Amino acid sequence: MSDLHEKSEQNSGKNSAGKTDWWREAVIYQVYPRSYLDTNGDGVGDLPGITAKLDYIASLGVDIVWISPFFTSPMRDFGYDVSDYCNVDPLFGTLADFDRLIQRAHTLGLKIMIDQVLSHTSDAHPWFVESRSSRTNSKEDWYVWADPKADGTPPNNWMSIFGGSAWQWDTRRLQYYLHNFLTSQPDMNFHQPAVQQAHLDNMRFWLERGVDGFRLDACIFHFHDQQLRSNPPAVKQNTTSVSAVNPYGMQAHIYDNTRPENLAFFEKVRCLLNEYDAISIGEIGSDDALGVMAEYTADNNKLHMAYSFNLLTSDKSAQYIRSQVEEFERRVLGGGASWSVGNHDVARVMSRWGGVQATPEFAKLVLAMQLSLKGTPCLYQGDELALVEADLPYEVLQDPVGITFWPESKGRDGCRTPMPWDATSVNAGFSEGKPWLPVPAEHRAAAVSLQESDPDSALNFSRHILHWRKKIPQLTRGDITFFAAPEPVLALRRSLDGMPGVIAAFNLGSEAITFDWPEVSGYVAMSGHRLHGDVQGSQVSLPAYGAWFGIQIQA
Question: Which of 1, 7, 123, 245 has CA atoms 20 to 30 A from the CA of 42?
Fold first, then answer.
């Protein structure tokens, strides 16, 4: 039996060892549907395209496929503005296509996790259409409505992440409605129990179709302060989850998100998920992201795991990475972290961390480092190919963030360009039609077809290191400890009861480095990871983007 099918059997509820927290050993792979594979020539990726590439995804050695939104939507925020939670947008296919995707994924031993965008809907959603029609309809309080101040201005100073006030005047109700994102994305009122139940019902709809879990988008925004108090200024501008040119980071977001009522709602979500042995991961973009991650995953009765933007920044220093993991470990109350260095909201890690001199060797090193941190790794499509950020001109931009904040911030389109499958095909094999975003020439040169035949490619290294990690329980379940090491070296140990410790050192820099690490005296080098490093006595020598793994000598 292959490792993949063995994992599949283990992942259905309790595995052979009786573990219900199988997700702690898993690896997530994010698929952005618009850009994965287009099968009907309209220039936009679709569900049949994902299904066609599930064998490829399975070959990587990942366990969970996170699929970004494919629900019915006007697509003003590319699916994160939902107008029907229980249907597939025709752009992506049909419910039957989704069912076929689920069936094929499960046959391959893959779990499917889908986005849930609960905090807000599209203004085209029937719920909002009814809610804004009057102040006396059955859904009049399903969204956050507020009267203006005496001078006609919004009720408080809350700001939208996408720029400007978070309040939009509505001429039907003669009130403002709250939108933390686009004006076409009104926020729902989670203080209304019927709203919570409607979302639980929608989630059950997908669980019944075989979904194995949910990624909860913008999950800190479910509740708001009912007194509508204004936020105070930030003590220090937050540039972790928004860019420095966005005034949203100038406020301390005390009243417009991360409210305490969210915890009880997550307990309801967990009860539902437990019925189906399904899992959850929350997106945390708050001022104190690590503390919120710990709180939202505490006590084994809320979210299973959470991720933040803390490793999605430009800071790649070993000390910074160490500080983020250590702080979460100090504060964690039983839940889990998912450490991601790339996704659909930030510039690709090859460019963001590696800069103009980054090579595929850098991508290999970053992946190995990410897989060695304690938590559930989440990989973004194309990072296994060492894709760089696409440099797109203004006239082709689609992302409302990039259009609003250009040119200081180019938005998120640069990481959302189509996957390059075949270097010799039109549009690199993504589509026979005109792609919704162009395929950069440098991505065509990194196409899957070229990397498949190169044993030293980033793709084949990704496959190898992912499968290698599965064989080392210390790296999937062990506790983590860090050691002092000179920049840019990250040195750590993973320890699991009853097993020898595993230590590793990663050179995040483009120059070779040698340093003294006394702890290596009790360890011998591990093989099979395909990274380069050497130990002589207590001296560790790492080439540019090199790494060394050692396993404890048993007495």
Answer: 123
Cis peptide before 543 (omega within 30 of 0): no
Structure tokens at 409: 């911030």
Question: Per-residue pLDDT averaged across 219-224, rounded?
Answer: 98
Q: Which of 25, 89, 115, 217 is catalytic?
A: 217
Q: What fold does the segment set 476-552 form as a domain? A: Immunoglobulin-like (2.60.40)
Assess contact for 77 and 182: CB atoms under 8 A.
Answer: yes
CA 229 from chain centre, in angstroms, equals 31
Q: What is the DSSP letter of 507?
A: E
Measured CA to CA in angstroms, residue 456 lies from 355, 450, 461, 544 at distances of 21, 11, 7, 16
pLDDT tens-digit series, residues 186-208: 999 999 999 999 999 999 999 99
Q: How many CB atoms lie within 10 A of CB 89?
A: 22
Other Cβ atoms closer than 10 A to 304:
23
Mean pLDDT of the 265-289 span? 96
The verdict on whether 395 is a catalytic residue reads: no
Known catalytic residue at 275: yes
For the domain bounded by 3-8+27-121+192-469, which CATH number is listed?
3.20.20.80
* Cα torsion angle, 6, 12, 17, 19, sign: positive
Q: List the domain boundaries for the chain.
A: 3-8+27-121+192-469, 476-552
Closest alpha carbon to 343 in 315, 310, 302, 317: 310
**Residue in the block written with tokens 């700001």:** 159
Give the pLDDT confidence of 76-116 residue by residue, as tens digits.
999 999 999 999 999 999 999 999 999 999 999 999 999 99
| Tokens 């549009």 sit on residue | 427
- Give the tokens for residue 444: 């065509």
DSSP state of 78: T
pTM comes to: 0.94
Identify the DSSP state of 299. Answer: G
- What gap in Å lies between CA 1 and CA 8, rounded to an integer? 11
Beta bridge partners of 380: 30
User: Going edge to edge, which strands form the sheet with 305-308?
Assistant: 336-337, 305-308, 279-284, 213-216, 111-116, 64-67, 28-31, 378-380
- Tally the residues of the chain: 555
Rounded to 5 degrees, φ, ψ at 249 are -70, -5
- Pairing state between β 175-178 and 167-170: antiparallel
CA distance 303 to 215: 10
Q: Tell me which of 151, 275, 408, 497 is the catalytic residue.
A: 275
